[in-house]
Amino acid sequence: MLALCACANPASTAVPDAGVDAHSHEHDLGVVDTGSFSGPELLSDTGLYSDFATRTIDADVLTYGVRFPLWADGATKTRHLWLPPGTTIDTSDPDAWVFPVGTRVWKEFRVDGVLVETRFMQKLGQAQWERVAYAWRDDGSDADAARDGATDALGTTHDIPSVSDCNNCHRGSADNLLGVSAIQLATGETSEPLAALANTGRLSVPLAEHPSVPGTPLEQAVLGYLHGNCGHCHSEYHPLANLRTIRFRLPLGVIDAADAPALTTLVGSPMHHTIDETTLGIVPGDPESSQMWRRMQHRGDGNEMPPLGTETVDTDAVALVRAWIAELPPSM
Q: How much is the mean pLDDT over the chain?
């Protein structure tokens, strides 16, 4: 999300971030956001847990991790996916999975070990999703649907997103789910979630090759971070794609790191704003002059990227991206 939402006038005739892309398509699947949530008011009534008191998950639920987690100010997350019996994920386009109607996915957030929220999504119909975050009570007895979100949940600095906030990010995916994708589920672990889905016949078309991220370990770490943290807004699926050509989502099959969209759309590209005296997305070999790196360090002033879901700079990522830009050859 490194150059979208802080633009006050995205339709301006001024030089936009990395130029206008008149050929980008809208959300091909036409994903519908209901704008509201009509499901259970209490998390205990959702049926997500077979035994709510002990937080027991059914055996047919996939508890999974992702290779490149979304930064959430250090909060830890536990992710769960449930697919209706006998259904498969349509993986005919390996970069744009389509999930069966009835799919349910939820994610538990903990801050300093305290369970503060559970985000929940379910697919109600073709290209129609409903979502809400449940805010946990002080005593941990249950969680309540928080349609409008909540600030500083349970006395922490963690903010729970509103239904609208959730949609702002999720609409940047082909079928509204973030993280449940080939690259993200290819964790390389013994209990890899991608392999678990493939081995149980939940993928309609097996992947031709195991997903990989190109480049050196540093390049892989940076391209993966940008893919997982910025790729859902800066993708060809987001409605703003026709106004912004910056792309951080990494498609499958990129062999050379130099061909990754994060480089091909940002190196030497003029930005819409002058921020910290920078005007170009990435200046190879010069992190200080690269606006992408600069914006990662902003919070609360309208120039921050990502613009949602974080109040604290990810210092590890900032250092990682700085090292990456510093190593880029000036001749790029």
A: 88
